[in-house]
Amino acid sequence: MSLQSRPLEKSDAPAMVEIIAEMEALEPADEFWDVEEVLEEFDSPTTDAARGTVGITDGDRLVAFGSLSISQPVGVWKAGLFGGVRTDYLEQGLGRRLLDELTAGATAIRDADHPGMPGELKIWVRDRRPRLTRLAKSAGYEPWRYFQDMRHTLGDLPELPPAPAGIEILPWSPDLDDSTLVASNDSFADHWGSAPIDPVRWKSYFADSSSFRGADSLVAVDEQGVVAFVLVEEFPAETAALGFRVGYIARVGTARRGRGRGLATTLLIHSLHRLQAQGYEYAELNVDSDSPTGAGRLYRRIGFEPTHLNTTYGRRF
User: Fold this and answer.
1) CATH number for the domain formed by residue range(s) 3-140
2) CA 288, CA 149: separation in Å to the nearest integer?
3) Which runs of E-coded beta strand occur in 51-179?
4) Cα(95)–Cα(4) distance, rounded to whole angstroms?
5) SUPFAM superfamilies, from UniProt (predicted)?
6) How do residues 27-43 score in pLDDT, each as one tens digit?
7) Of 240, 251, 268, nearest in space to 183 by CA
8) Strand 225-233 vs strand 53-58: parallel, antiparallel, or unpaired?
């Protein structure tokens, strides 16, 4: 066995999907990807394939992969780490090798592009992935924050509330996207770990993403523009694997000028009704367990129930 490391290439996408599927079969966590999603990651402004990815091969076979998801640097250089190892190559130190090589890559990118800027690396760990928990801890990562997965069964729903005075509830549309970004950056300005999202990254996350469901997303508009929003995704690979539709509420927020008016509650209930009408079986989201807006309590009040806990493990460099 001769294991070699190299940057990932788009031609690796099918093998990466296979590795993710093997990880899911070993430790089920409802994580499903298809080739189109992986290829979108290669084209994302958060990915630096040449400097921020690692593929480990055994001959011509990709047996492990890892990638940095690089945030827009605002005072701190930040990246998330994601990857996987084929199950028949576990217990051979490849997970730690990926982490070490990605850390070296992150340090090199930071030093070249933003010398002297403090750096942070984060790993999103689901409570159903104990192997990753052990790996993160062994590499010096510490738990920084907890996020609760929540699910709403789209059966009996709360009564549809009217829009507050001066507010119009509309489906998301491309002409409202810039205003939605402004509202999003404002609403998350006081949230842990958040930084402003630039327009290029924003479009890659939503409007240009194959998982984004603009027709199932809603915005609340006042005289200044979008003041609240509920943006929905659906993952085709997940739908195919589970056999039913799950509407994932990827981003929900209220600009600070609109807080205290019940806009988030109103918009979420409208969103649940819309998802039900479109044939979704569940709505899901995750929430910061220490959200400064008390979002978790809001979600419980309208029928969301906690399911699983996720931990952000981090380290500074």
Assistant:
1) 3.40.630.30
2) 9
3) 53-58, 61-70, 77-85, 119-126, 142-153, 168-171
4) 14
5) Acyl-CoA N-acyltransferases (Nat)
6) 999 999 999 999 999 99
7) 251
8) unpaired
